[in-house]
Amino acid sequence: MYTRQNQKNLTSAQKKRFTAAVLELKRNGVYDTFVRTHGKYFVPDRDRKLRVGHMSPSFFPWHRYYLLAFEKELQAVDPGVSIPYWDWTTDNSPVSSLWADDFLGGTGRASDRQVMTGPFAHDKGNWTVTVGISEARFLTRNLGRPQNPIALPTPAELQWAIDDPVYDISPWNSAVDGFRNKLEGWAAPKSERWRNHNKVHQWIGGHMTGGTAPNDPAFWLHHAFVDLVWDRWQRKHPRSGYLPAVPPALGDLQRGRVIALDEPMPPWDVTPREMFGHQGIYRYE
Fold it and tell me: What is the distance between the alpha carbons of residues 46 and 119, in angstroms, rounded to a whole number?
């Protein structure tokens, strides 16, 4: 079993090993296959297709398996590497440690949002964006969105999601209450468009705002924390299970569009139930 650490506690050597493993996956082409997978399974609920990655109950188990698959590739490069997590309720500034030159690099320059610092700066020659809708082939960020400021989620905002004892609610989309949607972040008051997970994507800006968000390595640290929050919710509400437990009934508009407890989540043959725990694989520190 290995440990996923809070990024603020990483040593400089651990940061270097993590970024080196990520750069190697980029170099050998594996990284971009993960970006393509995320883009393919980012399906809005206005579409009449199966939603598995987002705007649906399988948001948590799908991303848990996705992170595990990526971590396995990292460990094939360096067995001592795991995905760190970023607690954005406390490390909530553009000068927090994860944005330092020795880790993920900082925000983009004003003219074109191009990231100029850190190992993923295009000028270093190791990080060219090849997947996605953006025209830019360099990594872009706009931390905090200074021209139209946005703040990272507060501890209270996160707790608001964790406190909901109901996992998800029919019609299982972006317009419902329940823990899943409150944390994914579509369930926001009219005055605020995003909450929690979604708000973090918007705060980073640039490539993190679209379906091919993993073009920015910050994606993995963000989603490791989302995974940890799912753990916290499960511990707080031990009697609250994944919903829907069974597929929607015939005639239900969501039938065939959301994943039930024991249905496989594409593109893998793994069910939400199988992703309930990670004991014996990794732990959070």
Answer: 38
In the block, which residue shows the tokens 């043959």? 269
* Least confident among 121-125, 150-154, 172-176: 172-176
Residue type at position 193: R
In tens, the pLDDT along 157-173 reads 999 999 999 999 999 99
Q: What's the predicted TM-score (pTM) here?
A: 0.96
| Cα distance between residue 139 and residue 116, in whole Å | 9
Residue 282 amino acid letter: Y
Residue 262 CA to residue 259 CA, distance in Å, equals: 8
For residue 282, report the phi and psi dihedrals to the nearest 5 degrees: -150, 165
Give the whole-angstrom CA distance, residue 51 versus residue 41.
7
Q: Are 178 and 165 in contact (CB under 8 A)?
A: no
Write b or e for each residue in 84-94: b if 16 or more Cβ atoms lie within 10 A of its Cβ, otherwise e. bbbbbbebbee
2-284 folds as: di-copper center containing domain from catechol oxidase (1.10.1280)
> CA distances (Å), 151 to each of 88, 141, 187, 250, in order?
10, 15, 17, 43
What is the separation, in whole angstroms, between the first and last Cα of the chain? 12
**Contact present, 163 and 176 (Cβ < 8 Å):** no
Please report, for the chain, the start and end positions of each structural domain, with discontinuous segments joined by +: 2-284
Provide DSSP, 76-130: HH-TT----B--TTTS-STTSGGGSTTTT--PBPTTT-BB-SSTT-GGGTS----
102-118 residue pLDDT tens: 999 999 999 999 999 99
